[in-house]
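hiii so um. not sure if this is the right channel but i have a protein structure encoded as tokens and i wanna go backwards to a sequence. like what aa goes where. can anyone help
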């Protein structure tokens, strides 16, 4: 058809061009009408040729697309509801949603996914700003198991030979007003957090890994990245976490992880903007190895893990693995009550982040790892324990409580509280009620925290907090928090180890109050 039309079109076009001067010369009305008819016929033929060309190109593309994604069954496949919104999809929809052929070995693709620790299904426990950062390897293995289950439902039963990279991240801004018990009012507008996570899946079903880059909002010559006090110039990007995990929860409940991570000691869950007091006492980041067991059960499941690492603080020799611990717990569901309870121990609490750096500058104790006003060589190790429980009642009430405490006291040459060796302890308890406001998931949370022998860590003796959380737009969180801190009473004093003499840290006995508004956007 195309070969027949092309000579005809060319001939008509040429005849129109050649005859146009003669027709114009005669100025005959009949000839003018004939010319208009010929021109109209040429235009119609040109439109037909273009249409045929378009159909031929579309046909080629359809054949190529069909071959790239393999032949689809002639019979209509059963539709599969989409994960979150119930949109019907065919099993081959997965194949059609990526610009490459995932069945070619060695090929890979990059996609974005939910920020780790921020679920899409909301309840009081889900609206957590400071989401738990421990046991992240277990959370990722559960995510991968869910991904594989979804792929299987879409007709993709195996992801072997494919390297997948799931990107997620968060940007967080905050504005605050603080009225300290001692000193003047402080106000601030800050980029309080920014993070980019890369979750590496495969190419083997047994291997995965995480790389997390974070932004540091600290400023000044002591904590910032540059030797000045400019806030924006101290916005360094650093490697926060990076680890490799070997495990497949669809095949075995056992797993192993090695790299830089928060070791599984405590959970530090909170619905508040401000970190719980327990975090300063116990949360520990290390380059560690973890061996764990996570029972794969729908309702009731036992879990346990053991870990070891070379700590920053030391007694005697420094070049050896000198810290570690165990963590155990149980997920349960009884009727409309479900939750988690567990506990653990760590061999040396001196490696916790809050004990390595409390923010004080010389001449006060800045933590065991602080330059100039700290010392990692301690008299003896101080083991600690953790006990925790998280409970959800129905769809609206969530309760949590956690305790972190040293089992023994520090030597008086390392950390003191008044005249004795300090034995730091902290507890955090929260209650959250979930409701819907203006058709948006929302949560009202109350929290109480208490510490003992922790004046040297720069945290208050008691903390009362209330926070309102909501998610007005998709993939965002908004929070307003009021915090009331009761500082250690005047007359209390604390010191810490140092390579040089330090001034004692003293209690003020006066409360601090703060109001903070925060917004998060994540993907």
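sure thing!! here u go:
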């Amino acid at each position: 058809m195309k070969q027949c039309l092309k000579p005809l079109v060319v001939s008509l076009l040429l005849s129109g061009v050649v005859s146009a001067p003669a027709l114009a010369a005669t100025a005959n009305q009949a000839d003018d009408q004939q010319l208009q008819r010929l021109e109209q016929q040429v235009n119609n033929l040109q439109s037909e040729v273009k249409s045929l060309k378009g159909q031929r190109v579309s046909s080629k593309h359809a054949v190529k697309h069909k071959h790239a994604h393999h032949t689809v069954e002639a019979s209509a496949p059963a539709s599969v509801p989409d994960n979150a919104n119930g949109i019907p999809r065919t099993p081959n929809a997965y194949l059609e949603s990526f610009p490459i052929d995932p069945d070619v070995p060695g090929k890979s693709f990059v996609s974005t996914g939910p920020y780790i620790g921020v679920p899409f299904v909301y309840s009081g426990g889900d609206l957590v700003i400071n989401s738990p950062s421990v046991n992240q390897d277990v959370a990722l293995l559960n995510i991968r198991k869910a991904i594989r289950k979804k792929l299987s439902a879409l007709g993709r039963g195996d992801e072997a030979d494919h390297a997948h990279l799931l990107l997620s991240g968060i940007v967080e801004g905050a504005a605050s007003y603080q009225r300290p018990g001692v000193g003047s009012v402080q106000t601030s507008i800050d980029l309080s957090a920014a993070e980019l996570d890369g979750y590496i899946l495969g190419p083997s079903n047994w291997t995965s890994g995480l790389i997390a880059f974070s932004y540091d909002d600290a400023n000044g010559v002591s904590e910032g990245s540059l030797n000045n006090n400019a806030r924006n110039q101290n916005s360094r990007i650093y490697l926060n976490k990076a680890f490799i995990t070997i495990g497949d929860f669809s095949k075995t409940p056992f797993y192993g992880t090695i790299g830089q991570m928060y070791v599984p000691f405590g959970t530090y869950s909170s619905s508040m903007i401000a970190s719980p007091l327990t975090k300063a006492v116990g949360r520990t980041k290390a380059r560690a190895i973890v061996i764990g067991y996570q029972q794969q059960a729908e309702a009731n499941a036992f879990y346990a893990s053991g870990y070891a690492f070379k700590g920053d603080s030391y007694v005697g020799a420094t070049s050896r693995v000198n810290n570690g611990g165990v963590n155990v717990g149980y997920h349960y569901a009884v009727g409309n009550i479900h939750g988690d309870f567990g506990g653990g121990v760590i061999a040396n609490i001196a490696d916790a982040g809050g004990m390595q750096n409390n923010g004080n500058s010389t001449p006060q104790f800045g933590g065991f790892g602080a330059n100039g006003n700290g010392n990692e060589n301690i008299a003896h190790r101080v083991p600690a324990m953790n006990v925790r429980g998280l409970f959800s009642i129905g769809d609206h009430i969530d309760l949590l409580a956690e305790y972190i405490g040293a089992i023994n006291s520090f030597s008086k040459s390392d950390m003191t509280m008044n005249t004795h060796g300090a034995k730091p302890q902290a507890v955090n308890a929260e209650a959250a009620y979930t409701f819907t406001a203006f058709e948006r998931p929302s949560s009202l949370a109350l929290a109480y925290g208490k510490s003992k022998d922790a004046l040297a860590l720069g945290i208050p003796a008691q903390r009362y907090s209330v926070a309102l959380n909501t998610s007005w737009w998709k993939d965002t969180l908004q929070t307003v928090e009021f915090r009331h801190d009761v500082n250690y009473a005047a007359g209390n004093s604390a010191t810490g180890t140092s390579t040089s003499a330090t001034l004692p840290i003293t209690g003020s006995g006066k409360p601090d109050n703060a109001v903070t508004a925060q917004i998060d956007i994540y993907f």
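oh and The first helix runs from residue 2 to 26.
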